[in-house]
Amino acid sequence: MIANSQRKFKGGLKNRLFKIRSLPAVWIGKLLIILTRILGRGGTTLPGRAARLVDPHLSSHLAKYLREGIITVTGTNGKTTTASLIGAIFEKHGLHCIRNRSGSNMIWGIASTLIEKATWFASLHGDCAVMEVDEGAFPGVVGEIKPRGTVITNIFRDQLDRYGELDHIRESISRGLQAQPENGFEVINADDPTLVTLETAEGKKRWTFGLEIDTPADNFLNTGCDLKMCPRCASNLNYSRLYYAHLGHYYCPECDFKRPQPDVTITKRIINPDGSSLLSITFADQSIEFSFILPGIYNLYNVLAAFTTALAAGIPPSITGEAMEKAAPSFGRMEQFTLNGKKIIMALIKNPVGANQVLRTLLSEKENLGLLVAINDKIADGTDVSWLWDVDFEQIADAQNRLAYVAVSGLRAWDMAVRLKYAGLDSSRIPVEEDTARALSTAIQNISPDSTLLILPSYTAMLEMRRHLNKMGLGRPYWED
Hints:
15 helices; alpha/beta; 9-stranded mixed sheet; Protein-Tyrosine Phosphatase, Chain A; 21% strand; 6-stranded mixed sheet; disordered N terminus; 2 domains
């Protein structure tokens, strides 16, 4: 694993000065975690916010106890699943790994995670941590917790009210990379032309990953492409293979900009009858095969990101393969539940590219389907819901013959109903129920025992849906996993 002797916490006067603030900060945070859990809330942000008022450097202090350091995962889509896979690999390797499982990925969410795992004496028992990090918060988080490695999954338009366009997200990630300590590593998606031009900070090794499998012909007609121009000369990019959005084998016909050959690739994918995939991964003139249960092209990138990170961390590929075969869906990302014979799949949607891929994957299900889309516009969701008009919800209209039930919910349920009307669905047959608990109960009642209910929520709607499902006896709160 990563040699990280420099991160071991030093004793002496500096330690004692840290304790003066960190002890009461940890106590306040832990008490708030206990209180919020008693009240049935997650306790993912408030404890960290309050503790940081007492000790603004608490996360930095606690992070120094992790002898193998921290891996941060950032990017628009795939952070939670990738971080979950990396954590599972590290644990399979025998390491005690701390993770922000709930997806609370701002600095106060990360602080809450560290506080929960800390002792009442403001120390931390663990080998390493894997933290997914919001793209906008990335520079500040890196400056505070000093990760040994960083994984960047992709960059797409997301939460326009916060980020604006791609250049703003890219600039934030670039500043975070420059703040990372020397002698670390970074893992980059080579199929994303917005990432490969990021400068590598001095003293860090860059690892790249990408797909080397054939793509359906209709991928060249896909929607949601955020980057069409060469980042060097502004000419239109061409693709020999396009997997989705702007991810693929790109090249510029006017200059020498092109996709670099990745260090790690998936060269074969065979879809098994049970929906899992047999994958062949090639790296350094070696290859390994294993099965992976999560569906969709986008999850192949998550596999590659996690596998490449494990290589960079020195974990044997055989260990990684074993961990991948036992991987389960992470918090709100293709999670599956069963109630009275009825199958329920919940998949977060938060931007056009991710939503398009989720729809494409789930609507390929062979079963009879019911659909519940729940959209909120709270701060964590993004207050600008205009992105719904960039999602290819027309896919739903094309699958109407298999959709026995379609409903909408959440604070912006009526906006979603209008969007589905313009996608070609009969609005008179779409129930609108803003209350997510009632919408969920009604949806479950209205699908037959042999059907699958697809729940597509925004982030805070997903948290609500999960709580409702937990009350039905399905799944467990994330802190009990």
